[in-house]
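User: Please check token order:
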Amino acid sequence: MIKAWDEPTEVGDTPEIKQKHEDYILKQLKSKKITHFYCSEFYRKHVIQVLGAVNRLVDCDRQTFPISGTQVRRDIAKGQAFTKINQ
């Protein structure tokens, strides 16, 4: 798990916003290879391209996991209830 606390906060589908997020992700990874990307968000399309990863679409309607990344960032403890990773 890579914890990144200073991510870009702008959300949107513009080339500029995408580029900010892509640059940030690559900086955080420090050349680590990601093979699969699990996501239910609209931005997965450009992220899998920049990572060269396989897209694994997850629970788009949030029926199984009724929490978003934004909600997890606001309340880490609540988010951990939806994972098997407890750090």
Q: What stands out?
A: Helices lie at 15-29, 44-51, 69-74, 76-80. The chain has one domain: 15-80.
